[in-house]
Design brief:
The mean pLDDT is about 85. The chain starts with a helix and ends with a helix. Helix 3 runs antiparallel to helix 21 and helix 19 runs antiparallel to helix 20. By secondary structure, the protein is mainly α. Helices cover about 80% and strands about 0% of the residues. The chain contains 23 helices and no strands. It is found in: Cell membrane. Its main location: membrane. InterPro entries: MFS_dom, MFS_sugar_transport-like, MFS_trans_sf, MFS_Trehalose_Transporter, Sugar/inositol_transpt. One of its GO terms (molecular function) is transmembrane transporter activity.
Length: about 450
């Protein structure tokens, strides 16, 4: 459906916003390549990388609130404003203060990472949701891949391209975008909701689907207090927090935000820019495997095995960083190989399975509340890890960072093995019953 494909341009920009620091921070730190009136400090660089994460949380709440007041279409369309304006400021700004403001503004637009899946889930037919859900992950990794070519263009050109993509989305979505029936039903405009659904589906009979949507709109939701009072839901909530912790402490933040800097610091002799591009190409390609791997193996097995492989990749990086002065140049390929193994396993298994598991752990009546709290926790954790990456590396070295991540890979593998339940192939009701009985 063209309206969803156009909408995924914002998801591409979300990925580019996250990985923007990979090509741009090295330029900003360098006196000859910085677009600002002076090179930035390490502390300033850490803020530029991490400030988008709390902004995305604010943006998620802001645009989700707007989606209830003015509709999904207009809320999505309004993300064009922070995305385009933020990147225009980054293109022409010459002071660190303007860059702080611009990164925060762009981060607000990154709130689309909650809004776009909501829109796609509400406008697509059931049989198409899985395929388009895979496109969500591909769009993010496409954004990562695009920014990895940032070193070959000026900061102005990179940011102008991203600003223009935001404007193209705005124009196309204004023309092709549809409002979802859910919005009209919540406003008790049943006739309008049915007309919109019929327009979206064409000549199909929409009565059965319309009745299902109507029933969902009547479901009651529960607050966090009610979630925590239920034994089964309390366990699901602990699992969700554990998943977010394992996700962010796996080492992926260092790959997304600082891979080029890491390759430069490792000094393996291989071109850091080319190495970063190779890692992002592999990540993009392995994202195609995620839907097949995710449903072929049990969730627990997939997640725990993935965590152990991530552990070995992190240990390999830690060992190379620690012994690099005494390692033969014939082993210069080890860091790139470790990064490729890490990103292959993460992108085809661990990474995409986390949101799948989060969506499966909670019944519909509490899903919105529980997942909102879980996502806020994940964003705060991601912000802290990204913000203090440089400080940690300065204190303990890259080898210390990778060992720290390897230790958490083992912990999350044990947590999944001994605390989780299997969810593959089970209904939400069956999962809730098993959580209550465990």
């Amino acid at each position: 459906m063209i309206t969803v494909i156009v909408g995924y341009l914002t998801v591409f920009l979300y990925g580019a916003t996250l990985s923007w620091s990979t090509p741009e921070i090295p330029k900003l730190l360098n006196e000859t390549t910085t677009p600002l009136n002076r090179p930035v400090t390490i502390e300033e660089a850490s803020w530029l990388s991490s400030i988008v994460l709390p902004a995305m949380v604010i943006g998620a709440f802001l645009f989700c609130y707007l989606s209830e007041k003015i509709g999904r279409k207009l809320a999505l369309l309004s993300t064009t404003v922070p995305l385009a304006s933020g990147y225009f400021i980054l293109a022409f700004g010459t002071s660190i203060e303007l860059y702080y403001i611009a990164r925060f503004i762009v981060g607000l637009g990154g709130g689309v990472f909650i809004l776009m899946p909501m829109y796609a889930g509400e406008i697509l037919e059931k049989r198409r949701r899985g395929a388009y859900g895979s496109v969500f992950g591909l769009s993010i990794t496409a954004g990562f891949l695009f920014t990895s070519f940032g070193p070959y263009m000026s900061s102005m050109v990179l940011n102008l391209i991203l600003a223009m993509i935001a404007l193209v989305f705005g124009v196309l979505f204004a023309i092709f975008g549809h409002e979802v029936p859910y919005y009209y039903l919540r406003r008790n405009e049943h006739d309008k909701a049915k007309k919109v659904l019929q327009k979206i589906r064409g000549n199909q009979d929409v009565l059965e689907e319309f009745n299902e949507i109507e029933a969902k709109c009547l479901e009651k939701t529960e607050d966090l207090g009610q979630v925590l009072r239920s034994r089964g839901l309390r366990r699901a909530f602990i699992m969700s927090l554990g998943l977010q912790t394992g996700l962010h402490l796996s080492g992926i933040n260092g790959v997304i935000f600082y891979s080029q800097i890491a390759f430069e610091d490792i000094k393996s002799g291989m071109d850091p820019i080319v190495s970063t591009i190779i890692v992002n190409v592999v990540q993009f390609l392995t994202s195609f495997l995620a839907p097949f791997v995710g449903d072929r193996f049990p969730r627990k097995t997939n997640m725990s095995v993935s965590a152990i492989i991530l552990c070995f990749a992190n240990i390999s990086l830690a060992a190379y960083c620690y012994f690099r002065d005494s390692i033969s140049s014939s082993f210069a390929f080890v860091p790139l190989l470790a990064f490729v193994v890490f990103i292959t396993v993460f992108s085809s298994g661990f990474g995409p399975l986390v949101p799948v598991l989060l969506s499966e752990l909670f019944p519909l009546r509490v899903k919105s509340t529980a997942m909102s709290v879980t996502n806020v926790y994940g964003a705060v954790l991601g912000f802290l890890i990204t913000k203090y990456f440089f400080a940690f590396v300065q204190s303990f070295g890259l080898s210390g960072y990778y060992l720290f991540c390897a230790a958490f890979n083992v912990l999350i593998a044990a947590f999944i093995k001994f605390y989780f339940i299997e969810t593959r192939g089970k209904t939400l009701e069956a999962i809730e019953d098993e959580l209550n009985e465990a």
